[in-house]
Amino acid sequence: MITELGHFALLLAFGVALIQMIVPMVGAAKGWPGWMAVAEPAAGVQFVLIAAAFGALTWAFVTSDFSLAVVVANSHSMKPMLYKISGTWGNHEGSMLLWVLIVALFGAMAAWFGGQLPTSLRARVLSVQAAIGVAFLAFILLTSNPFARLAVPPFDGQDLNPLLQDPGLAFHPPFLYLGYVGLSMAFSFAVAALIEGRVDAAWGRWVRPWTLAAWVFLTIGIALGSWWAYYELGWGGFWFWDPVENASFMPWLLAAALLHSAIVVEKRESLKSWTILLAILAFGFSLIGTFIVRSGLLTSVHAFANDPERGVFILMIMAIFMGGALILFALRAGALEAKGVFSIASRESALVLNNLLLAVACFVVFVGTMWPLLAEMFFDRKLSVGPPFFNAAFTPFMVALGIVLPVGSALPWKRANLARAMRPLRYVFVLALAIGGLVWTMQTGRSLIGPVGMFLAAWIIMGTVVDLMQRTGRGSNRLGRLLRLPRADWGKATAHAGLGVTMMGIAGLTAWTVEDIQVARIDVPFEVSGYEMTLRSVTKGNGPNYVATTGVIDVFRDGNFVATLAPEKRFYPVAQMPTTEAAIHQNLARDLYLVIGDEQTNGGWAIRTYIKAMTNWIWIGCAMMAFGGVLSLTDRRFRVAAGARKARRQAVPAE
């Protein structure tokens, strides 16, 4: 009965979404307040109905209701409860239901907390958001019904993909979808503004919190996915330029560009057309990511390999929304005349350069991701584009971004004296160069990645500190003024410093990793880069739904005990799939990373050892970036901005 109620709630939600899509838009066009007022309650009702449907599907997984096809294909009665719950979204149908639930959630939040928005703009935003919901509800109901029943239920299920049975990946998709789908609000604001023909400073202030929230969730989701890949896949890497990884990274880059561009709209009423275009493209790349994951055209270790017919449906959705928005942009772009003027040496110009670097970097990732598919479709050639291409093509733009970032933060708005603005940074630049030179001296003969990465990290982090101190002015009580700075300033500084910390971690991991593989025998020591290791035992045991082979390895350095590590190989009988569980001893300087392989014919065991320098700084930096975004979101100016600009609702359109 609960399953049928969930299916019925989904059908009702589709009907409510249709009403929300049509009635407020007509009301805004005709100036009918009653019709426009339909948007708010409709958004709330739609969210409640989809939440009820999602709750019904979750209940089916928790209770192991094997009358549902999706539960049979992705669950098992012996699976731990955490993975029964995460199995709800660990499949195509359930994840799409989560996708559309988040669309409805953002629409409902805009209805609940958007009371200060102009009535017509709010109605149009909620109408466009509902249109996205209609498209994906139709996709679910017509091609991916999670409530489809089996005529003859089996005794037990086929289990969830063992690679997904991990805490990191249990929480990774919800955060990622909150970021993906959160960009739909920026898209809805952009399309609504194009329909109204007005983009002003108030619009820039309204769109920033939604974009910032989406960027924060994307940052957390990408970091969780990277962390999972690092310790779960047994390869010892944090990023593989996998198509699905790229699918989330591309909108993250564009969302970062949109955040900075919206600041220029808010402060100077410039870059209006570019900001609107970024809002359209950021959500467009979220749709491209959905297509990549679900079309089955590109293979990935964590893609939903579904039939291409579903991919065609998603491609049609993408064509309708992206094509329609871009056509509307082409028709209206001429009306979005910029008011603010600025010189080449100004913060506006620095933000433009920031945007160009991020956008071109996104394009590079897109080309590398899609080129194998295009080559096969049009040239009948099998190509593989891997890390060497991405590292060579993408890295220069990130290096340029790191160099520009502290300079841009130091420049004033409109017009700047570059020499004067750089004066507080000159000692920081020299110190950063000295740090890079020291690293170069210490690792003579190795890659440039280490010295360059350390220079960029020091330059960004110390530049951020200087920028904060410059905001306190001169004289006494600078510490008090520093503590009283707005949270948005602290948030920006924390996020920028987090980027520097992440660059430092990536540089250290890339430049100074040590890798070794050898056959280890019981109680026979072996040495790797100054560490002495001894395999004490290898045992076999049973987990909740797997069989594990576990090695116990003692690690010493210079005669001192370091740790006892227990890497595992697991085999899941139901899924007939093995997984690797690396054993990792962590500290801020390095990770000692051990993987046990197969038993060898001579009685030994294959042991792969990695010594990963500065790995944890990657995720510390990601956490700092996300925390910086949250700090900015809690700034009082975000909460009162719309009310403060209420008097400007009838502002003259930018024509």
What is the count of β-strands? 10
Unreliable residue stretches: 640-655
Helix-strand category: alpha+beta
Task: Output mean pLDDT.
Answer: 87
Outline type: globular
Distance between the termini: 57 Å
Over all CA atoms, what is the radius of gyration?
27 Å
Main sheet overview: 6 strands, antiparallel
Strand residue content: 5-15%
How many distinct helices?
A: 21
Query: Percent helix among the residues?
Result: 55-70%
Structure commentary:
It is a single chain. With 655 residues, the protein is of the alpha+beta class. 63% of the residues lie in helices and 11% in strands. The protein has 21 helices and 10 strands. It has helices at residues 2-30, 33-36, 39-62, 69-74, 81-86, 92-113, 119-143, 167-196, 201-232, 243-268, 272-295, 308-332, 347-379, 387-410, 418-422, 426-442, 449-470, 478-483, 487-512, 616-633, 636-644; strands at residues 514-520, 526-528, 531-542, 547-557, 560-565, 568-572, 577-581, 583-586, 590-599, 605-613. Strands 2, 3, 4, 5, 6 and 7 form a 6-stranded antiparallel beta sheet that branches. It has a 4-stranded antiparallel beta sheet with strand order 1-10-9-8. Helix 7 crosses helix 8 (167-196) and helix 17 (449-470) runs antiparallel to helix 19 (487-512). The longest helix has 33 residues, at 347-379. It is globular and about 80 Å long. It starts with a helix and ends in an 11-residue tail after the last helix. Residues 640-655 have low confidence and may be disordered.
